């Protein structure tokens, strides 16, 4: 490939890169409306055209420099060619970066358009839902009107029934007055009986308490008597044994005395 072809390719790539750069500058906010985004792209295109003209002039100067290099010595020619290739590589890298940013901008534009389409679909769907709601509300209003009419009829019937019940209530008031008087008397009697019952219950509790105390006292006395009886029995046993021993001793002495007396009588004879 010749040097002029390389420069031409670099110029074309630079054109596309500058268009991408200027497009990115005008499309930072892709959440705006689609019309604003299109205006941004048109401004970017006009600015890119101006930048491309500048690049072309620079490249033209470089081409002229290359032409002049042919008349210089080979060392300077190679040096300038290396510098030119370095600049071209830098431009290519910048161009690739700009193309990448342009693709990202296009992707964001496509996503924005997709969101706008989805929003339009959502709006259409919500419009249908809103129409359904309006229809439902109209039906509810009609149903409410029917309910109101039904309630009004029921209220009229209830008013008639209320008047009839009022008449019956007036006739029952006299009977209720007598019944209330009887109820008050019965209430007084019940209160009196209740008091008597409470008094009797208290007396009953007191009697049971006294009986319980008497039983406890009886048990204590019984226990004490049993202890005393056992003690007396033991003492009586001791006395009986002592008396028996003394009786035996006395009988023995008496027997001995009788034997002694008989012996004395025999000696006298």
Automatic annotation (TrEMBL):
Transforming acidic coiled-coil-containing protein C-terminal domain location: 81-265
Protein's UniProt keywords contain Manganese: no
Keyword Ribonucleoprotein: no
UniProt-listed InterPro entries: TACC, TACC_C
Major location category of this protein: cytoplasm
Cellular component terms (Gene Ontology): cytoplasm; cytoskeleton
Keyword vocabulary terms for this entry: Coiled coil, Cytoplasm, Cytoskeleton, Phosphoprotein
Compartments where located: Cytoplasm, Cytoskeleton
GO biological process, any: mitotic spindle organization
Pfam families: TACC_C
Family statement drawn from the similarity comment of this UniProt entry: Belongs to the TACC family.
Protein known as: Transforming acidic coiled-coil-containing protein C-terminal domain-containing protein
């Amino acid at each position: 490939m010749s040097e002029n072809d390389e420069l031409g390719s670099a110029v074309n790539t630079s054109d596309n890169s500058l268009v991408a750069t200027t497009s990115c500058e005008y499309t930072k906010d892709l959440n705006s409306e689609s019309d604003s985004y299109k205006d941004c792209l048109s401004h970017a295109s006009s600015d890119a055209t101006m930048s491309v003209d500048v690049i072309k002039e620079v490249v033209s100067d470089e081409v002229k420099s290359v032409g002049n290099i042919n008349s210089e010595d080979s060392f300077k020619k190679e040096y300038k060619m290396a510098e030119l290739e370095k600049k071209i590589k830098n431009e290519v890298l910048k161009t690739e970066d700009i193309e990448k940013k342009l693709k990202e901008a296009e992707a964001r534009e496509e996503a924005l358009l997709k969101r706008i389409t989805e929003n339009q679909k959502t709006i259409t769907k919500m419009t249908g839902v809103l129409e359904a709601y309006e229809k439902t509300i109209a039906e509810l209003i009609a149903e409410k009107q029917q309910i109101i009419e039904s309630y009004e009829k029921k209220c009229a019937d209830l008013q008639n029934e209320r008047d009839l019940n009022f008449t019956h209530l007036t006739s029952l008031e006299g009977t209720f007055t007598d019944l209330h008087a009887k109820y008050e008397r019965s209430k007084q009697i019940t209160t009196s009986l209740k008091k008597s019952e409470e008094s009797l219950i208290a007396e009953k509790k007191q009697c049971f308490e006294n009986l319980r105390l008497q039983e406890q006292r009886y048990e204590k006395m019984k226990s004490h008597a049993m202890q005393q009886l056992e003690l007396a029995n033991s003492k009586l046993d001791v006395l009986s044994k002592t008396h028996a021993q003394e009786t035996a001793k006395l009988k023995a002495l008496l027997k001995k005395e009788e034997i002694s007396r008989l012996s004395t009588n025999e000696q006298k004879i």
